[in-house]
């Protein structure tokens, strides 16, 4: 910790915890204390820690080929692209390194699409309370001023609309709109699912104005909601033109992706976009193994996710400080009726790791391998925390 304070850029408000190793849903600090991991690297360690099949694939592939660049083919990009297209219902994939990079690529795709129609067709419509990443383009379409303020002026041509304001949404989308971007479950914004009727309205408006409909599934996608993607929760599903994804797909290795239909793909031709590291052999092979395991895990994930939500709603009946429990599958938020960041430290004392987002929402993104027994352990610790309530000085 002292070396980090001395030499690292001080942009993280870290908690005083030094982690050494992990196994399954558990993490261990340098003193050997163990913690139930309910945040999984902010949704990244999808299969927990040291999963035996992932470890086997990583060791084997690392001894063969880690990186070759996108100048050449390797064995795993094509099969992984096929898998992403088949599970999403779309047609083309592009691999990158992170969620925010996927969003940047989607913005370029939207601008290129619009420019082919009209040079003035470059506007992007996004939701208030959204979060799309920390690069300049992604920040520009993030609907939370606290993230944007220090870096303005940002990318022009962005309009924000309030969820539920249909008239405002219709007024914001027009001939100059190149894309509508929707985070299908707002993660950083407090685990807020976007209703199906709003997604259908977004599809309708995008079609009416020849704009691309982009769904940001970086935090909520690839299995976490109990379906491959969160938009598939709705019946009938509202299929976007473009999906951005990243967090869980390579089980801790950096990998992001854009998946799109033929209309969106036609906007990008050779030389317009690229990446040095994205889609390397090691990350893609791990992602393929993840997909195989995910197909086997999905019934358990739905069952345990429902068990977790039921347990939290039971706690809600006992503790009046809980305003709402919401989420799908293994993406859960517990809204408290006061700022509750102090709960994180109390959780660590109880051997639980989670975080608080939007000041008042306890966010849990547990590994996909979590069991009912581990959920019981989490609920026991959370019950103690919620019972403590607001600190005396608050």
Defining traits:
single chain; 394 residues; alpha/beta; Aspartate Aminotransferase, domain 1; Aspartate Aminotransferase, domain 2; 7-stranded mixed β-sheet; 4-stranded mixed β-sheet
Word description of this protein:
- With 394 residues, this protein is an alpha/beta fold.
- It folds into two domains: 2-51 and 297-388, Alpha-Beta Complex (Aspartate Aminotransferase, domain 1), CATH 3.90.1150.10; 55-292, Aspartate Aminotransferase, domain 2, CATH 3.40.640.
- The chain contains 13 helices and 17 strands.
- The protein has helices spanning 2-7, 40-43, 52-62, 77-88, 99-117, 136-140, 145-148, 166-172, 196-208, 262-265, 281-318, 342-349, 372-388, and strands at residues 19-23, 26-29, 34-37, 92-96, 123-127, 158-161, 177-183, 185-186, 192-193, 212-216, 242-245, 256-260, 322-328, 331-336, 352-353, 355-357, 361-364.
- The strands form four sheets. The chain has a seven-stranded mixed beta sheet with strand order 4-12-11-10-7-5-6, with helices on both faces. Strands 1-2-3-15 form a four-stranded mixed beta sheet.
- Strand 8 (185-186) and strand 9 form a beta hairpin.
- The two termini are 29 Å apart.
Strand content: 15-25%
Which strand order do you get reading across the main beta sheet? 4-12-11-10-7-5-6
Could you say what the CATH topology of the largest domain is called?
Aspartate Aminotransferase, domain 2
CATH superfamily annotation of the largest domain: Type I PLP-dependent aspartate aminotransferase-like (Major domain)
**Unreliable runs, pLDDT <50, ≥5 residues?**
none
Query: What is the number of helical segments per DSSP (H or I, 4+ residues)?
Result: 13
Work out the radius of gyration.
Answer: 21 Å
- End-to-end Cα distance: 29 Å
């Amino acid at each position: 910790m002292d070396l980090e304070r001395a030499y690292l850029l001080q942009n993280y408000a870290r908690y005083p915890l030094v982690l050494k190793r992990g196994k399954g849903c558990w993490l261990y600090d340098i003193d050997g204390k163990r913690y139930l991991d309910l945040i999984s690297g902010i949704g990244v360690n999808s299969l927990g820690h040291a999963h035996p099949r992932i470890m086997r694939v990583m060791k084997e592939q690392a001894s063969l080929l880690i990186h070759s660049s996108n100048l050449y083919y390797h064995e795993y990009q094509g099969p992984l692209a096929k898998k992403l297209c088949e599970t999403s219902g779309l047609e083309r994939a592009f691999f990158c390194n992170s969620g925010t990079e996927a969003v940047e690529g989607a913005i370029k795709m939207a601008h290129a699409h619009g420019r082919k129609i009209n040079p003035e067709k470059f506007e992007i419509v996004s939701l208030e309370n959204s979060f799309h990443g920390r690069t300049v383009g992604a920040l520009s379409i993030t609907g939370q001023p606290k993230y944007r303020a220090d870096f303005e002026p940002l990318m022009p041509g962005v309009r924000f609309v309030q969820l539920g304001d249909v008239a405002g949404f219709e007024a914001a989308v027009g001939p100059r709109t190149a894309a509508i971007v929707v985070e299908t479950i707002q993660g950083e914004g407090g685990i807020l699912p976007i209703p199906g009727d709003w997604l259908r309205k977004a599809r309708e408006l995008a079609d009416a104005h020849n704009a691309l409909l982009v769904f940001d599934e970086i935090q909520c996608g690839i299995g976490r909601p109990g379906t491959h993607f969160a938009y598939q929760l709705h019946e009938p599903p509202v299929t976007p033109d473009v999906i951005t994804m990243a967090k869980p797909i390579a089980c801790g290795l950096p990998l992001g992706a854009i998946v799109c239909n033929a209309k969106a793909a036609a906007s990008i031709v050779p030389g317009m976009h690229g990446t040095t590291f994205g889609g390397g052999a090691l990350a893609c092979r791990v992602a393929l193994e993840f997909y195989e395991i995910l197909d086997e895990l999905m019934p358990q994930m739905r069952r345990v996710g429902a068990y977790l939500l039921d347990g939290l709603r039971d706690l809600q009946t006992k503790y009046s400080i809980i305003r709402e429990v919401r989420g799908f599958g293994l993406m859960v938020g517990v809204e408290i009726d006061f700022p509750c960041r102090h709960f994180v430290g109390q959780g660590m004392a109880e051997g639980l790791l989670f975080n608080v987002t939007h000041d008042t929402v306890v966010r849990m993104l547990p590994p996909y391998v979590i069991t009912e027994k581990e959920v019981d352990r989490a609920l026991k610790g959370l019950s103690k925390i919620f019972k403590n309530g607001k600190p005396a000085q608050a």
